[in-house]
Structures are given as C-alpha cells and as structure tokens.
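Worked example 3. Consider a protein that binds beta-D-fructofuranose.
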Amino acid sequence: MTKQFRIGSFALGLVAAIVVAGCSNSGGTDTGTSGDAKGGEAKGGKKPLVVFSQANSQDPWRKVFDADTQAAADTHKADFEFEKQDAGGDPAKQNNIVDTFMVKKPAVLLISPTEDSVQSTVDKAFDAGVPVIILDRNLKSDKFTVYIGGDNVEIGRQAGEFVADKLKGKGVVLMIQGIAQIGPTRDRRGGFMEIMKKNPGIKVIEGDDCGYQRQKGRAYMETFLQKGEHIDCVYAHNDEMAIGARLAYDSWAKTKPAGSAKDPLFVGIDACQTEVIDMIKAGKLDATFKYPTPGAKGVEIAAEILKGNKPKDKKIILPTVKVTKDTADQYLKDNPNLAK
Ligand code: FRU
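Given these inputs, the predicted complex is written out as structure tokens:
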C-alpha cells in the first residue's frame, strides 16, 4: 500500500503550540483550571504519592526512560512515594492502571500515553484535581498541567534536511511509520514532509504503521523489497524500525547482482542504544536524532509541584541532537547511559 503523501496542517498547529525550545522554564502559561490539588500535603504523616503510568517498558528507549525516571525518583525518597505501572502498549490496560491509581489519591500523575484514546481517562484525573504531567506522547486536549517531551516536528524537519542534502534533492524515500494514533508519529511525518515539499525532486512512499517495533519494520521491509521498487533512502520514525529495515535489506542484498545500485540511506530517531551508534560507525545506518527521555525532568517538576511551585510553562521541550558517523564517538562520550 503506497501513495504519495502531502503535508498536513497538524504539524503547523503543533509548532504554533510549542511554547519554548530547549528545556528552560521561561515564559508563563497558565497551567489550567483543575489539576490543582495541593498534593504536597501529606495526610496522617504519610508521604504523598507520585504515580507514573508508562506506555510500555519493553523497547530500548522506554528502558532508558524508566531507568532515568526511577533514578530521579530515588533522589526524592524523603519527599514522596513513587509507584510505576507498565501498560504493555495496551490503551485499555493503561485506562485501568490510571483508574486504579486514582483510588489511591495520588498527589501527581505522570503519564506517557499509549495512544490518543486514553485522553478521557487523563481528563478525568485532571478534572478530579490531580496535577497531570504528560511525558513524550502529547494528547489533543488541554487538560494537563505540564507536557514534557522532544520536539518531534523539529526532529522530522532535521531528518528531512539531512535526507534532502544527502540525496541532493532527488530520489525516492520509503518512510516507515510509527503508531498512527499518536502525536510523535504525526509530527515526525509532518516535519519531514514540510522539508520534502521544498524538494519536489524527492518522492516519498508512505509506508505502513510498523508500531515502532523492529520485527514489524523488518517484516514490512522484506515484503517491500520483493516488489523490486527502487529506493534511495529509508526514513523510519524510530531506530528500532530502522534497524529492522536494515537487517531485512542486508539479507535481501545478498541475492542482488554485484555492481547493482548502491545501498539506500537509513535514517532513524531515538539515539538511545549503543547498537544504533555502533551501526552508524559501521556505515549500516546513516543518521539518528536523539529523542530525549523526559522522565527525570518529569520527576523534578512533580517534586516542585509538591512544594507548591506550579511550573510557569505548560510545555517543556527537550532538545535533540543529530548523530552521524562524524559525531558518533562524541555522542557515546556525552551519553554514557544508553541501552545496549
Ligand atoms: C518507544 C517509542 C520510541 C519513540 C517513542 C514515541 O515506545 O516508540 O521509540 O521515540 O516511543 O512515542
């Protein structure tokens, strides 16, 4: 299923909504009308409870995210209890987890949504007066206290610029997509297509939703290669799918005639695992973009809320970094806590 893709206006909407670039706390946006409980007040001498509903804890990026979050929470043991539950990628399970958390009257709810459909559960928690900190996957409603995450439109744009530059404005890109019903996918696609629009010599084949999973990316690429369509680049919405596509390509390439077309570029997003950086060093992947994990900042903001300090900004945007062969070693030095 392939079709030429035109940029949607959603990306522009998100850009307009972003309050700050970088992780500073400048500016002053009202944090909403509810989610205002004074959670810092421990009842009966008990410490307040901060809860975290994680979308899934299986993939490398989430493993780094969980470890960062836990490490930050460990520094606040004297201030609050911390409880985390993994929804295993299932929105129904995440709704249940949040509802169960709510029975415990948490002081702050941190949530990394599985997908857009958990919106009403998050709205309910916010309406009940619990400060809500959304991590990574942005939701469409305004019912949250703070959003913390990377700028996915900007990452998509930077990926687009890298590809347009490498292809010198001409060629065919296969875009392997993440989960369709989430903000990061829409934005990584939107930012990329914004740049492609300025490069009419590049055709983008809109690939399937491969769920941000390596195996699905690999299986999709295997099927795609069987069609014999020429491509100059694979842009995958995360590194796991880029790795899957590369592995599929390497198996397929063993059968292609010697001296035939050169390998396509492979570009991913996340830069959270040494495997990816090693593949960049080995020339198996061409670039990735850091998608910073938002958990430590989330815990820090939760601790501030408990002290009665409402964040000034409703959106805290964490910066990205481009990683290529030239910068791979430096990136490893700067990021010692990557997943395997
Ligand atoms: C992990 C993940 C990351 C991606 C993010 C988008 O579950 O798929 O690879 O960057 O979620 O929300």
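Take a moment to read the result before moving on. The longest strand covers residues 202-209. Residues 56, 59, 61-62, 136-137, 178, 182, 184, 212, 238, 269-270, 291 surround beta-D-fructofuranose (CB under 6 Å).
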